[in-house]
Structures are given as C-alpha cells and as structure tokens.
Amino acid sequence: MLVASLLVASFVIFAALYLAPGNPISALSGGRSLPASSIAVLEQRYHLNESFLAQYWYWLDNVLHGNLGISITLRENVSTLIASRVWTTAGLVLYASLIIGVLGIGIGIVAGLRPGVLDTGTLVTTAVSAAIPAFVAAIVLILLFAVRLGWFPALGNGTDLASNIRHFTLPAIALAISSLAIVARVTRASIREEGEREHVQTAVSRGIPARKVIQRHILRNAAIPITTVTGITIASLIAVAAVVEVAFGLNGLGAYLVQAAESKDLAVVQGISLVLVTAFVVVNLLVDVLYAVLDPRVTLGSRAG
Amino acid sequence: MSATAPLAGPAVPRGPVAPRSGPGAARRGRVLGALALLRATGPVGIASAVIIAIAILVAVFGTFIAPYDPNLPNLSLAWGAPSGGHLLGYDFQGRDVLSRLLVGAGTALLGPLAVVAGAMVAGVLLAVTAAWRRGASDAVISSGLDILFAFPGILLAVLAAAVFGPGLAAAAIALAVAYMPYVARVLRGAALKERSQPYVAALEVQGASAASICFRHLIPNMGPLIVAQATILFGYAMVDLAAISFLGLGVQPPEPNWGVMISENQVGLAQGYPLPALVACACIVVVVIAVNLLGERLFEQAQRTYR
Amino acid sequence: MSAPLLEVDGLTVLLDVEGAQRAVLRDIAFTMQPGEAVGLVGESGSGKSMTARAIGRLLPRGAEIQGSIRFRGGDIGSLSGAALRRYRGQVAMIFQDPRAHINPVRRIGDFMTEALRTNLGVPADQARRRAADMLAQVGIEDGTRRLRQYPHQMSGGMLQRIMIAAALLTEPRLLLADEPTTALDVTTQAEVMAILDDLRRDFGLTILFITHDLELAAAICDRTVVMYAGQIAEVRASSLLHDDPLHPYTAALAAARPDITQTAHRLRAIPGRPLSAFEAPPAECAFAPRCPHARDICLQAVPDLAELDGGLSRCARAHELRGQLQEVPRA
C-alpha cells in the first residue's frame, strides 16, 4: 500500500510536467526563452525524445538516487536546495506536534474526566480555536506578541538553537492552534465514551480503585482513537506548514515551494512535492502501525474507516 | 364499572421504532424534512445557519450593496482610519475596507461551495457505486481512494498552481479532487449499511433498476449524513482556499478576497495599521465557526438516524 | 435459621429521568440466606437489573436511595473507600453481554487477575495460577494458554464462563448474575447454568439469578421473586410457582411460554406492554390494566405485599384467586 501510494503520487507529480500548457521544455524553463545549448541539455537530461513511460522511469530512477533535477531560477541542485531548508520545516512541524500532543491531549483528558465548568469552558474555547486557520492565527499572534508586546520576533529563522526556538514559537503555535482544538475535542469525546462502556463498569464492580480504572481501562482504550486522530492531524501539518512559513518569513520547504510555484520552477516544485508527499504517506503509515499495536483486534493493513 | 366484567384495555403498544421511510419522500416532504432537521440542531445550530445564510447573501449581492468601489486605489488615503461612510477605514492602497470585505465574500464563499459540490458529487457516486456493487468493484474503488489519500489539499492546489498558473479555478478543482477520497470513504460505510436494509431487497425483487433504487431511495435516505458531511467539508474548503489565496496562488489581487486581503495588509501590522488584516481574519473565523457548529450538530442528527 | 446474608428492606430508588426524580424501584424487600439461590424474574423495565445494581452499589450518579440493604448485618449504603472495596470483593457481579463487559484490548489473564493483584496484593504469577485453576473449574481446558489470549479470539459462551471464573477468584459470598445466559444460544445456556449450579454447591455460593425466563430461574433457584413495574409482585418457592402462582402476572408469564408438549391455536401473550416503574400509577395496582382478573378493588390503592401460604403476593385478590390462576381465562 505504501509503495503503491508513493508510486502513484510520484507519477502524478511527474505527469504535472506534461499537464502544463505548452511543451515540456517551456514548462521546465517556466516560459523563459533559453539558448539552444540549454535546450539540448534539457532534452538530454530529461530524455525528452523518448516515450512517456521511459521518461518516467528515468526520472524515478534519478529521484531514487537523490537526483531531483536542477532549479531553473537558482541554477543549483534541487536536492541541495531542499536539504538546506528541510530542517526548518521539520523543526516547525515537530515543535507544533509537541504542542498539539501535550496540550491537546492533556486538555482533552482533563476535560473528559471532569465534567463541569472546566469542561464547558474547554468545549467553547476549542469550538472557537478549531475555526482559526493557521494564517489567521499567525496574523493575530504577530500583532499581539511580536508587535505590541515584543516578546517574540515576527519574522525569520533565527541563528542558533536558542534563537531558533524563539523564532519558531509563534509559528509553531499558529500552526498548532486549530489542530490542538480538534485533538482536544476528540480526546475529550473518546474519554467520555470510553468511561461509559460496560467493561469499565465491570472493573468498578470489582472494587478496582478509580485511578487504576482510569489508567488501565479508560485511558488505555481511548488511546486508540486519540492516537489515530492525533497522527492524522500531525500529518496534515506537513502541508499547512507552508502557509505559516510564508506568514512568518521562515526559510522552509513550504515557503520555497510557493515561491517556486509562482516562478514556475517546475523541477523544484516536483522535488519538494515529492518530499512532502512521502513524509505525509510515511506519517500516515506510522499511524496505521501504531493503531495495530494498540488494538489487538486489528491486523496491519486495515484502519477503521 | 361492573363487579364482574374484566377490565378491558389493550394499551397501545409502543412497538418497534417506526421504520425510516423506504421510498424517498415527496418533494414537499423533503423541504419540510430539511427544515425539521435544522430545527433539531437546537438554538446553536439555527443561529449558525442564520449567520451562514447572511454570509451567503452578502457573497451573492456583495457587489450591489458595497458602498464604494472596492478596486479604486487612492494612495493618499492609504491606511486611513475609519471615518464617515468608511466604517472600516482604508487598506494599504487606500481602498475602502468594508466594500472590499463585502465584495470579497463572493470568492471567499462561492469558491468553497464549488469545491464542496464537486467533492460531494464525485464522492457520493463513488461511494454508492462501491457499496452497491461490492466485491471486486468495491475493492478497486477503495484501493484507488486509499492511494489518492496521499495528497493533502493544499499541496495539490500548489501543484496545480505551478502547472496551470495561479487562480481560483485551478485551486478549487485541486481541492475537490483532494477531498473526494475522504468523502467517499465516509459515505461508503453509510451506503453499505443502507444497501443491506430490507427495503432495498424488496425493491430489487419488484424489478426496480439499480440506478432508480440508488437515486430515488438510497441516496435520499443518506440525506442527513450527506448534508452534515457537506457542511463540515465547506469549513475545510473555506480555510484551505483562503490559505491558498493568502499564499498568492488562488484569487489574484487586485480582486478582493478575504485571504488575499490578509496577505496584502499584513505589512500594516508592524506599522500600526492592523485593522484591514484583522477584519478580514474576523470574517473568516466567524463564518467558519458557524459552519463548524452547524456541521457538528447536523452530524449528530445524522448519527441518530443510524443508531 | 442462621442470620441472613442479604436483607433488602423498603428499598426505593429514584433516578433523574428527563429532568424529574422518578422511582425506578418501589419498596423492594426480600432476604437471602447463605447458600440459597434466589431467582429475580421480570420483563424489561421491571427493575430487576436495577435491584442488582443497587445491591452491587453500581447505581448511576445522582441516584437517590431510600430504605436499606444490609449485607451480613452491615448497611452497605454507608460504605466507602477501602471498606467499599472489601464489600465489592465479597459481592461479585456477572453481566449479560460478556463481550461488552470485558475490556477488548487487554488479555484474558489481565482481566481475570486484576482484582487479585490490585486489591488483594496477590503476586502476578500466583494470581495467574489461580486463574488457570478456576478456568478448569468452569470447564475451560488449557487455562494458561487462554490467559494469554484476547477476548475477540473467543466465543460468547466461553467469555461468559471466563467472566464467572473471574468473579469467583476473589471468593465472594454473594454472586449477582444479571441475565448471564440471555445473550447465549440455548445449548450454551444449559452449560452455563450447570456450571453455576455446580459452583454453588462446591463453593457454598449465594446466588441472585436475574432473568426474564421463569422456567430458567426455576431450574436452579429455590425461591423466585417476580417483579413488575419496579415492585415485587410475588415471592414463592420455585417448585410451586408454575402450578400454584399467587399473582395473576406470574400466572400470565408462566402461561405465555409456549409448551412443546401441547398444540395451541394462539400464543398466549399478555395484552398491552410492560410498565416501567416510573410509569406506574401511584394509587392502584400497576398490573390492573392488563390483568384479566382486575376488579374495582384493584384500582383503589397499591396492594400490599401480603403473606400467603409461605409466599408473598402483591395482589388485592390473592386469596380469592387462589387455585384459579393457572388457567388464564380467555379475555
């Protein structure tokens, strides 16, 4: 399944070159005019004289060897360009995932286990924050914490680890906010639901202390839907990170992808798309694996729809 | 009452729950049914629906009710504060913010509508086909959908923008394609359940064709779920399309659009003119909250029909 | 006669039903002697499960309890903390749908030994050995292997036996069996009933057996309590219940069961539908609207639970109808 997904995805990404209006040369060059020698180089490198499938094969072969082509605008290896930016995006996504995991699940658990004011408050807050897209959050955060309060910088990557963390905090929060709300809601709902299941009653009827009941029966069982949703949510961060990178002027893959799309630097677009799609598919696969580990009723390869 | 006659009185048995209408309801029944569904979502659901209705009206009639020309730049008025008829001030090019908001509602809302329509139609058809034929067809369709899951919406939209050039149409189509597998997967489960209902077998025995059963009975009976799913999807589409426009790959300036307005006026934040960007943010958030709240409640109602 | 193990007296339970406090149990009273098997029979909504939950201290939050339940002389309503946990160790409950009542993501061994390890501090390997032995007692071979398996790998009948075995590990005095065989097919039902009967003899267990099936209760229970609309309708020795019932409801229940040995033109159903406790009118016999023997006197007040021939009956006309109830007149 994993391989099939990636193969089809790579095919689609590859075929993008041909879907573009005009011929592949103009697509590769982004509509710029090129000297004859450059055209010849392109024809040779991309095997443009051979059949479609053969071209796909060469391209795929190159990709698997780490050769993602050359950026038209910057005249550098796409792989190098990607490598220099991948840690920004990865760092951002990881930071946001941490926030979502710790805060989202934490708040959800507390709200799920204690009905009352805290719970209602959580419901209301999450209803609002689930609706805040990352770029809206970015604007508000920049306004409040960077411009007005000056606690965090508004733009840029930062220089070393410490300043990196400072620079990445607002973007990570912006990225995490709506996903955090969704995860908190799902966590709360799962905990509520699990708490009412009959097997929890059995444990109570045997005098198992409340704390152990919560730990061994409610949390353990609710962990299944919670990790699934958290995993899927984190996977979706991979794409949305682009928006946050642009809003905060971060030098990551997403921002670069948008730039390349605007300047029609197709090789870069293809390369970054491939990387992001692979990451997305791999994270989803990890979620499937985790699900099979947590739920003994499920064998690998099937995820409850 | 006589001393010898036994008390009569079979109480009306509560009996089994009345079966869901097998044949799809008549047209008038459908409208009333829709209104009843809405009422069942409670005050929050109704309030949300009202907000969404207002937003849609603004989207459709925005150009007519906007007090000023949304596209007329006047740099000498740039970043002007609210005054007189300009309730929300001027943006970075001196254009009236309120007018741009009202007109911008058009693309902000009608774009997602197109996305949802496309994804739902395709999703319903695929889901029902897979559920109806089961077996090999189902396996093929399901595997195909699983593979398509590999593309997050925004990524596909950026790819489309790179290939076809930036614009609302390319982005909307890309999003519809990206959402379709998700819709199909959710609806396939419901379609399978519906397929195994006794009335379907009864209709088959009477000689009704597959198409007529599906379109006149199966799909209408999935109505509440489809509506709930569409509403939730609308929220996602709004956010994603606004994000794409924010990135500059969707609606192109100078055309007004909430996402575009945010990115255009972002510079104002640091310069002390946050209002244009903020009001655009507020518009998006309010509508999306309303959509989410309504969608959640519609979903609960749909679940109740299936329990 | 030795001291009763369980004394329920004037038990009334009120639950929050759609905003108002409604009675789901009214004035329930019975006792159980050690080693006895008592059947608790009734239709859905009669309150039989609720009674068991009240005894097991498993009522939903917000339930109001009036009257008393005494276990070995001590009132259980006031128990809390460690004392409550000890009580729970002494009173075990098994439930109707074993698959829903056993945690699906934990192993059987985990399920069975949980109470032993947590509450009684028994070391894990010892607990497992005891669990395997108990599985043998309920007819499950190869216990050690079964302990490592998961619930979804087993049939309903096997899970029910496992539930019974698990309940007995803490050596309880009282077993509350809430429709343990309803979800099982007839053959398995017979096996589980046989196991319960054997265990009662071997361990001197006291069993409260809850079911909607009058005959099933009669199979292993010495006495049967019949409930209707949250109240006790009749208490009688099981052997007498079928041929000499003291309450029209019991007679109707017994008559409603199809008899293999006879041909009947129509199945005998009781007209109307069973009432839940909170639907019962406050000042008349709850069964009157459906009762073929009802007269004016039945509508004047809720009849008392009165003694008659060694049993109890809540029928205003019990004395008059004595001996006539087995033949339900054609309505």
Mean pLDDT metric of chain B: 81
Compute the number of strand runs of chain A.
Answer: 0
| Overall CATH class of chain B | Mainly Alpha
Low-confidence stretches of chain A: none
Structural class of chain A: mainly alpha
Q: How far is the N terminus from the C terminus of chain B?
A: 45 Å
The largest sheet of chain B is: none
Name its key features:
heterotrimer; A: 305 residues; mainly alpha; 76% helix; 0% strand; globular; C: 331 residues; alpha/beta; Rossmann fold; 2 domains; 8-stranded mixed sheet; 4-stranded antiparallel sheet; 12 helices; 12 strands
Textual characterization of the structure:
The complex is a heterotrimer of chains A (305), B (307) and C (331). Chain A contains 12 helices and no strands. By secondary structure, chain A is mainly α. Chain B has helices at 27-39, 42-65, 97-133, 135-148, 153-164, 168-195, 198-205, 210-221, 223-246, 258-264, 267-271, 275-306. In chain B, helix 6 packs antiparallel against helix 9 (223-246). Chain B is elongated, with a radius of gyration of 25 Å. Mean pLDDT of chain B is 81; it is low at 1-25. The two termini of chain B are 45 Å apart. Helix content of chain B is 70%, strand content 0%. Chain C has 2 domains: 6-221, 3-Layer(aba) Sandwich (Rossmann fold), CATH 3.40.50; 239-321, no CATH class. Chains in contact: A-B, A-C, B-C. The interface between A and B is large, with 55 and 47 residues.
Give a quick summary of the entry.
The complex is a heterotrimer of chains A (305), B (307) and C (331). Chain A has 305 residues and is an all-alpha fold.
Secondary-structure topology with pairs:
The complex is a heterotrimer of chains A (305), B (307) and C (331).
Chain A: H1 2-19, H2 24-29, H3 36-45, H4 52-64, H5 78-113, H6 117-129, H7 134-148, H8 161-195, H9 198-205, H10 210-247, H11 253-262, H12 266-294
Helix pairs in contact in A: 1-12, 5-6, 5-8, 5-10, 6-8, 7-8, 7-10, 8-10, 9-10, 10-11, 10-12, 11-12
Chain B: H1 27-39, H2 42-65, H3 97-133, H4 135-148, H5 153-164, H6 168-195, H7 198-205, H8 210-221, H9 223-246, H10 258-264, H11 267-271, H12 275-306
Helix pairs in contact in B: 2-3, 2-12, 3-4, 3-6, 3-9, 4-6, 5-6, 5-9, 6-9, 9-10, 9-12, 10-12
Chain C: E1 6-17, E2 20-32, E3 37-41, H1 48-55, E4 64-71, E5 74-75, H2 81-90, E6 91-94, H3 98-101, H4 108-119, H5 124-137, H6 143-147, H7 156-168, E7 174-178, H8 186-203, E8 206-211, H9 214-220, E9 223-228, E10 231-237, H10 238-241, H11 248-256, E11 306-308, E12 311-313, H12 318-321
